[in-house]
Design a protein that fits this description.
The structure holds 2 protein chains of 2 kinds. By secondary structure, chain A is α+β, with helices and mostly antiparallel strands. Chain A is built from 8 helices and 4 strands; from the N terminus they run ααβββαβααααα. In chain A, helix 2 runs parallel beside helix 3. The radius of gyration of chain A is 17 Å and the shape is globular. In chain A, about 35% of the residues are buried. Chain B is mainly alpha-helical. The longest helix of chain B has 20 residues. The C terminus of chain B is likely disordered. The two termini of chain B are about 25 Å apart. Chain B contains 7 helices and no strands. Classes of the chains: A alpha+beta, B mainly alpha. At the A-B interface, strand 2 and strand 4 of A face helix 6 and helix 7 of B.
Chain lengths: ~200, ~130
């Protein structure tokens, strides 16, 4: 079956539902359990990669996802969700890897879209924006920082920024061009909160 | 010859021929690998079975593939996963490609080496009469 990006989002939400995930805070343990249910073996590779985050192999030796062990928690979760998509839709390819050099390939873009939806479904994002009383094109860095902190989502700032722009809560490029989210986090944490948020 | 015996002999051979034939003592190798001094001797005599992680560390120390520890006829079996993976990985950074190759070899080695547990250190083997 060929999956377009819409199908991949539907698939992501279905897998979430099947595995009892109800919030935008998806942990490594959640994904480990899902991998276990699907019979996917995980290898945490302790040696250093320059860019590589993970790889998926499905062959006569079994189904394995290799993960760079030194990844911090949130990028690890994203990579696990990304590789889960390869398991669900790309097993015929037998192998794929995940780094920055192949990020524009359709199959990899699909995995990124799946992972972003899996960790933080668009529908949740819209609901949170409404609760925070943020209208279209009004979402700024401070909103994203509050959203991440209050939902404790494991989707990265970069992932949230892409989502905000794609769902037109922020102007194109206004958030994705920003760098240094952790520094911004410190700056905004000192500033008074904006908007009303009730989870 | 058993697989364990073959692995044991390969470790000994590599140690003796290390550094252009100069060799390295068991104690020095143990220090390099951060294992107990008598572990190398026990690996070489087949008393201990090195884990796959131990073999990976040894292969990195000696600069050989982990597959080098296994008999050729087993190790040469088609490794389709490795070939498939590397075919898709042409644009990877060279160091990542190299590390990915090592991972694929490790995975292949695991399929060869599977199913045998490592004897517990300090526990004497039971003799069957």
């Amino acid at each position: 079956m060929n999956y377009d990006y819409y199908d991949l989002k539907v698939l992501a939400r279905r897998v979430r539902a099947e595995n009892g995930l109800t919030s935008p805070r998806v942990l490594q343990t959640d994904l480990r359990q899902i991998y276990f249910r699907y019979g996917i073996e995980i290898d945490y590779w302790p040696y250093k990669f320059k860019y590589l985050r993970g790889a998926f192999i499905c062959d006569d030796l079994g189904t394995t996802v290799m993960l760079a062990q030194n990844l911090p928690h949130d990028p690890m979760v994203f990579t696990m969700a990304h590789e889960l998509k390869h398991f669900l839709t790309d097993r015929h390819l037998r192998a794929s890897y995940c780094d920055q050099s192949n990020i524009s390939k359709a199959v990899e873009v699909g995995a990124e879209i799946f992972a972003a939806e899996f960790l933080f479904p668009d529908q949740f994002f819209v609901e949170y924006m409404q609760r925070m009383r943020v209208k279209r094109n009004q979402c700024n860095a401070q909103t994203i920082i509050r959203l991440k902190q209050e939902t404790r989502t494991t989707l990265s700032y970069a992932g949230l920024a892409i989502k905000a722009e794609r769902l037109r809560y922020a102007a194109a490029g206004s958030l994705t061009r920003l760098k240094g989210w952790r520094k911004l986090e410190k700056v905004y944490n000192k500033a008074p909160a904006v908007g009303v948020f009730t989870a | 010859m058993s697989l364990l015996k073959h692995v044991a002999e390969q470790i000994k051979e590599l140690r003796k021929h290390y550094n252009s034939g100069e060799g390295i003592s068991q104690e020095a190798l143990a220090r390099q690998l951060n294992v107990a001094p008598n572990t190398i001797s026990r690996w070489e005599t087949g008393i201990y079975r090195p884990s796959l992680e131990d073999l990976e560390n040894l292969s990195r120390f000696f600069g050989v593939s982990i597959i080098a520890f296994f008999p050729e006829e087993i190790a040469e079996a088609t490794n389709d996963d490795l070939l498939a993976l590397l075919r898709t990985a042409k644009k990877l950074a060279p160091e990542d490609l190299e590390e990915l190759r090592k991972y694929a070899e490790f995975r292949h080695a695991r399929s060869i080496y599977k199913g045998k547990s490592r004897p517990r250190p300090g526990r004497k083997a039971t003799k069957h009469k």
